[in-house]
Design goal:
This protein has 379 residues and is mainly α. 83% of the residues lie in helices and 0% in strands.
């Protein structure tokens, strides 16, 4: 199996996922939903991943990645199709749940397979190529969605996004490319309890850093459509701003395989946390599109270089035969924050406006950078 095959399949599914998040937000606003309602909708993307990510990781460890990825692609396709067939606010909750659960399984499966490809010393570069694929789809999703909304409307954009996961469904059904089979778990891999993983200090520190960085990423995806609508930007302009974020992540990840042996993972992660905190301090002070694009690029550069580092550290510190489960724990931590943040920040935005939302996130990221490095120094 070649890495690029897997990256292309992931790009298609992720483009539908990331585009649907923007589309669901803007369509809910079009239907006169409140900011809090939009926050509830975004939390539904994380509901099932929060509850079942560990079980999903164990499933991938046990049976391999092919069929979990196939079922997940079907869930993403079905989620986009349902809101086209029944374009109502109530159906958006169903779509968000299906798409969120489907992409969670895709992400866990793909990450586990990428960790198995090639030699151990190639792992960081492999995760960088996968992350580059996410950047491509992260740019395609908002751009296609924004321009499609302005040209064919919200409802038909759901049908357009439905086409993206169809290729992975067909390819995985035909088993092209063939994915690695499940490994037999070693005796020293532990009894399969989640607490065994959480007691591992090195893994726990990775979980904390990963959760904070993904909160920063998810916060941007949640708040940018709302903020853009409030300051009068069109859907296509919001798509351009969000696409610039994805373009920046792609650019930094394009260079990362060349620099991967010259930088220390924890230094990169700390820098990403501090850059993100600074960007969120500045966001609510600006309404100019060029300046919003510049800030989005800065945020994309910081967050884009951190994810491959996190994934490499996570895979390298996981017990043998339990990498999928460790990825599931990370996904659970990540989606627990994703489920709670939109609710909390949606309510805060409705009550006090956008300023406290951005600045609360900045304080959280700054405190996280201090906490992670303090723990690292102690260990």
């Amino acid at each position: 199996m070649r890495l690029w095959h897997l990256v292309v399949l992931t790009i298609l599914t992720h483009a539908a996922f990331i585009g649907s998040r923007m589309l669901v937000s803007l369509y809910a606003i079009h239907l006169h939903a409140s900011t809090f309602t939009v926050g509830v909708l975004m939390s539904f993307y994380a509901l099932l991943p929060m509850l079942f990510a560990v079980s999903a990781g164990r499933l991938v460890d046990r049976i391999g990645a092919r069929w979990p990825m196939f079922g997940a692609s079907v869930a993403v396709a079905l989620g986009t199709l349902l809101s086209f067939i029944w374009p109502r606010l109530e159906m958006l909750y169903v779509s968000a749940t299906l798409i969120g659960a489907g992409f969670m399984m895709v992400h866990v499966s793909v990450s586990q397979v990428v960790g198995k490809i090639g030699r151990a010393e190639d792992r960081a570069a492999n995760f960088s190529w996968l992350a580059m694929g996410f950047s491509i789809s992260g740019s395609i999703g908002p751009l296609v969605t924004g321009f499609a909304i302005d040209s064919i409307g919200h409802v038909h954009t759901f049908l357009l996004l439905f086409l993206f996961p169809l290729v992975p469904i067909i390819v995985l059904w035909l088993n092209r490319p063939a994915l690695p089979r499940a490994e037999e778990r070693r005796v020293d891999a532990g009894e399969g309890r989640v607490m065994d993983l959480l007691r591992n200090r090195a893994l726990r520190r990775v979980f904390i850093a990963s959760g904070l960085l993904n909160m920063a990423w998810d916060m941007y995806i949640f708040v940018m459509p709302i903020y853009g609508s409030r300051i009068g930007l069109s859907a296509s302009t919001i798509g351009i701003v969000m696409g610039s974020f994805a373009f920046a992540t792609f650019t930094v990840r394009l260079l990362l395989p060349l620099l991967i042996r010259r930088v220390r993972p924890w230094h990169v992660i700390t820098a990403a946390l501090l850059i993100s905190a600074a960007v969120y301090c500045l966001f609510p002070l600006l309404v100019s599109v060029p300046l919003l694009v510049a800030l989005s690029c800065a945020l994309g550069l910081g967050l884009g270089c951190s994810q491959p580092m996190v994934m490499t550290l996570l895979y390298n510190t996981s017990p043998p035969g339990r990498q999928g489960e460790a990825l599931g724990v990370r996904t659970t931590v990540m989606n627990a924050s994703h489920a709670m943040l939109p609710l909390a920040f949606g309510g805060l935005s409705a009550a006090l406006g956008m300023f406290p939302v951005f600045w609360a996130m900045a304080v959280l990221l700054g405190a996280g950078a201090y906490l992670v490095n303090r723990r690292r120094d102690r260990e």
